[in-house]
C-alpha cells in the first residue's frame, strides 16, 4: 500500500494553558484524513532555543499573537511540502529547514514548523497503520520501548510561582511502582497528602496551584521543599518507593557580573540573605549535601545555560548517584549535546520538541544521547495544550522517564492519561529504578 501524502495544511491561533496564543496545525492527507497538532510554550526558556514567532502587535494579546506563524504554515510551508510523503518526515522537516534558512528558525518560526512536523508524524503513523508511539519507535531506529517513570512537579518556585522559593520545580519520582498505572496512583495520592500538609502548615491560601499544577506554598528554601515532600511521601506510605528531584532552572537567578547564584533572588533586595549567594563550587557542595540528606535522584539545570564547566563539576561530584539533566544547556540541539558529551557536562538531556522545532532534529539529539549512554528526560512546557504527543514520544523512544507536571490540570493529565491507555494497550513494562537507561532497556 502506498504512503499517503500531504494534501492540505490549515493553521489557527488557539490558546495555551496560560491563556496565551499558540499555533495549532491541521493536516489533511491524500485520503482526506485530518491530523491535529498544537505547539507548547515555555517561560524559563533557554537562550539558544529555536524562535517562537510572536506578532509583537500590542493591540492583540499584549503582542503575543501568532498570526504570522499561522500564515507561514499556509502561505509558505504548504506550497513547499504539498504532495510529499507523510511517512518520510525526515524529508519534510529538511524541506522546512531549507525554506526557513536560518539557524534558529526565525524566518518561519519554530512554532509554525513544529506544528507541521508533529502533524506529519501523526499522519505518517496513520499511513503506516501503526500507533504514534510505534511510528516514532521506527523513526528512531527501534529502541526498546518501556513505560516511563512520571516525575510529578508538585512544588513550584522560580519564575513559575509567586513565592520566595528560587528553584523552579520539585518532583515526586515513584521509582518503586510496579507499573505506570500504580506510579500515577502513588503520585496522585502523595499529591493530595501534600495538599493537606501545606494547608495545615501554611494555610489554605497556599494550596492554589502554579502553571504546572504544583503548589507554591510560602516557603523559600530547598530544605523546606524537600522536608515537605519527604513528609508527604511518608504519610502516604511510600517511603523507599517515591524519590525526589529538582529543576532549579538556575539561569533565571544567575548573576553574570559576580558569576554567582542567588538562592534568595525573589525576595526584595533589602531583605535578601547574603549567605544565599553562592559561587559555583558552593552550589556543587550545596546539592551534594541535599543528596546526602534526602532521597534525591535527579537534578536539572543546576547552573546557567552556558555554563558547561559548572555542570561538569556537578556531574563529577554527584553524577553517579544522581541523574544530572541539561535543559537550557542543550535546548534539544544535537550540536550543544555533542559539546556536553565531550565535556562530560551532564549525564542526561531534557527533550523538549519546541526547543529545537522539528521531530527529526529531536530524534537526532535523542540518538546522540543514546549512543553515549546518556539519559533522556522527555518534557512538557509550562505553557501547554491538551495535545498528548509527548506521551507517545517518551514510550516510542524508550526514554524511561518524563515530566509533564503535577497530577492536576487538564493539559498535564492529557499526557498522563494517554500513557495509561498506551500501557493498557501494549502491556509494556515499567522503567522504575532503571529510568536512567534511556534507549537501552
Ligand atoms: P518552561 O519550564 O517550560 O517554562 O521552560 C520547564 C523547564 O524549565 O523544564
Ligand atoms: Zn528545566
TrEMBL record:
<protein>
    <recommendedName>
        <fullName>phosphopyruvate hydratase</fullName>
        <ecNumber>4.2.1.11</ecNumber>
    </recommendedName>
</protein>
<feature type="binding site">
    <location>
        <position position="300"/>
    </location>
    <ligand>
        <name>substrate</name>
    </ligand>
</feature>
<feature type="active site" description="Proton acceptor">
    <location>
        <position position="352"/>
    </location>
</feature>
<comment type="pathway">
    <text>Carbohydrate degradation; glycolysis; pyruvate from D-glyceraldehyde 3-phosphate: step 4/5.</text>
</comment>
<dbReference type="InterPro" id="IPR029017">
    <property type="entry name" value="Enolase-like_N"/>
</dbReference>
<feature type="binding site">
    <location>
        <position position="169"/>
    </location>
    <ligand>
        <name>substrate</name>
    </ligand>
</feature>
<comment type="similarity">
    <text>Belongs to the enolase family.</text>
</comment>
<dbReference type="InterPro" id="IPR020810">
    <property type="entry name" value="Enolase_C"/>
</dbReference>
<dbReference type="GO" id="GO:0006096">
    <property type="term" value="P:glycolytic process"/>
</dbReference>
<dbReference type="GO" id="GO:0004634">
    <property type="term" value="F:phosphopyruvate hydratase activity"/>
</dbReference>
<feature type="domain" description="Enolase N-terminal">
    <location>
        <begin position="6"/>
        <end position="136"/>
    </location>
</feature>
<dbReference type="Pfam" id="PF03952">
    <property type="entry name" value="Enolase_N"/>
</dbReference>
<keyword id="KW-0324">Glycolysis</keyword>
<feature type="binding site">
    <location>
        <begin position="379"/>
        <end position="382"/>
    </location>
    <ligand>
        <name>substrate</name>
    </ligand>
</feature>
<dbReference type="InterPro" id="IPR000941">
    <property type="entry name" value="Enolase"/>
</dbReference>
<feature type="binding site">
    <location>
        <position position="327"/>
    </location>
    <ligand>
        <name>substrate</name>
    </ligand>
</feature>
<feature type="domain" description="Enolase C-terminal TIM barrel">
    <location>
        <begin position="144"/>
        <end position="438"/>
    </location>
</feature>
<keyword id="KW-0479">Metal-binding</keyword>
<feature type="binding site">
    <location>
        <position position="160"/>
    </location>
    <ligand>
        <name>substrate</name>
    </ligand>
</feature>
<feature type="active site" description="Proton donor">
    <location>
        <position position="212"/>
    </location>
</feature>
<dbReference type="GO" id="GO:0000287">
    <property type="term" value="F:magnesium ion binding"/>
</dbReference>
<feature type="binding site">
    <location>
        <position position="327"/>
    </location>
    <ligand>
        <name>Mg(2+)</name>
    </ligand>
</feature>
<keyword id="KW-0460">Magnesium</keyword>
<dbReference type="GO" id="GO:0000015">
    <property type="term" value="C:phosphopyruvate hydratase complex"/>
</dbReference>
<dbReference type="InterPro" id="IPR020811">
    <property type="entry name" value="Enolase_N"/>
</dbReference>
<feature type="binding site">
    <location>
        <position position="300"/>
    </location>
    <ligand>
        <name>Mg(2+)</name>
    </ligand>
</feature>
<dbReference type="InterPro" id="IPR036849">
    <property type="entry name" value="Enolase-like_C_sf"/>
</dbReference>
<feature type="binding site">
    <location>
        <position position="270"/>
    </location>
    <ligand>
        <name>Mg(2+)</name>
    </ligand>
</feature>
<dbReference type="Pfam" id="PF00113">
    <property type="entry name" value="Enolase_C"/>
</dbReference>
<feature type="binding site">
    <location>
        <position position="403"/>
    </location>
    <ligand>
        <name>substrate</name>
    </ligand>
</feature>
<keyword id="KW-0456">Lyase</keyword>
<dbReference type="InterPro" id="IPR020809">
    <property type="entry name" value="Enolase_CS"/>
</dbReference>
Amino acid at each position: 500500500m502506498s504512503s499517503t501524502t500531504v494534501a492540505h495544511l490549515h493553521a489557527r491561533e488557539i490558546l495555551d494553558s496560560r491563556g496565551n496564543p499558540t499555533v495549532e496545525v491541521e493536516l489533511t492527507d491524500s485520503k482526506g484524513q485530518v491530523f491535529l497538532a498544537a505547539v507548547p510554550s515555555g517561560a524559563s526558556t533557554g537562550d539558544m532555543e529555536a524562535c517562537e514567532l510572536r506578532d509583537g502587535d500590542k493591540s492583540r494579546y499584549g503582542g503575543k499573537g501568532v498570526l504570522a506563524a499561522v500564515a507561514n504554515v499556509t502561505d509558505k510551508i504548504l506550497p513547499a511540502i504539498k504532495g510529499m510523503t507523510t511517512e518520510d518526515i525526515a524529508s519534510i522537516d529538511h524541506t522546512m529547514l531549507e525554506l526557513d534558512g536560518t539557524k534558529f528558525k526565525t524566518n518561519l518560526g519554530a512554532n509554525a514548523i513544529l506544528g507541521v512536523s508533529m502533524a506529519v508524524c501523526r499522519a505518517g503513523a496513520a499511513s503506516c497503520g501503526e500507533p504514534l508511539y510505534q511510528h516514532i519507535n521506527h523513526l528512531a531506529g527501534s529502541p526498546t520501548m518501556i513505560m516511563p517513570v512520571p516525575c510529578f512537579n508538585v512544588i513550584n518556585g522560580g519564575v513559575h510561582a509567586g513565592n520566595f522559593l528560587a528553584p523552579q520545580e520539585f518532583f515526586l519520582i515513584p521509582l518503586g511502582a510496579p507499573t505506570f498505572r500504580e506510579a500515577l496512583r502513588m503520585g496522585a495520592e502523595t499529591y493530595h497528602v501534600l495538599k493537606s500538609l501545606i494547608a495545615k502548615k501554611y494555610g489554605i491560601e497556599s494550596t492554589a496551584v502554579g502553571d504546572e499544577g504544583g503548589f507554591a506554598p510560602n516557603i523559600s528554601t530547598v530544605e523546606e521543599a524537600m522536608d515537605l515532600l519527604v513528609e508527604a511521601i511518608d504519610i502516604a506510605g511510600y517511603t523507599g518507593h517515591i524519590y525526589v528531584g529538582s529543576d532549579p532552572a538556575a539561569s533565571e537567578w544567575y548573576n553574570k557580573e559576580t558569576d554567582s547564584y542567588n538562592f534568595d533572588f525573589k525576595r526584595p533586595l533589602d531583605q535578601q540573605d547574603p549567605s544565599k549567594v553562592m559561587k559555583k563550587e558552593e552550589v556543587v557542595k550545596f546539592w551534594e549535601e541535599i543528596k546526602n540528606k534526602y532521597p534525591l535522584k535527579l537534578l536539572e539545570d543546576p547552573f546557567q545555560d552556558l555554563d558547561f564547566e559548572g555542570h561538569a563539576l556537578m556531574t563529577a561530584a554527584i553524577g553517579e548517584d544522581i541523574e544530572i539533566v541539561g535543559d537550557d544547556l542543550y535546548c534539544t540541539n544535537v550540536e550543544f549535546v555533542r559539546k556536553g558529551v565531550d565535556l562530560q557536562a551532564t549525564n542526561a538531556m531534557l527533550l523538549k520538541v519546541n526547543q529545537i522545532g522539528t521531530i527529526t532534529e529531536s530524534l537526532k539529539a535523542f540518538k546522540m544521547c543514546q549512543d553515549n549512554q546518556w539519559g533522556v528526560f522527555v518534557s512538557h512546557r509550562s505553557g501547554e495544550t491538551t495535545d498528548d504527543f509527548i506521551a507517545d514520544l517518551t514510550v516510542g523512544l524508550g526514554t524511561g522517564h518524563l515530566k509533564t507536571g503535577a497530577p492536576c490540570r487538564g493539559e498535564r493529565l492529557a499526557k498522563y492519561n494517554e500513557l495509561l491507555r498506551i500501557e493498557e494497550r501494549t502491556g509494556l513494562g515499567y522503567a522504575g529504578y532503571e529510568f536512567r537507561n534511556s534507549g537501552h532497556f
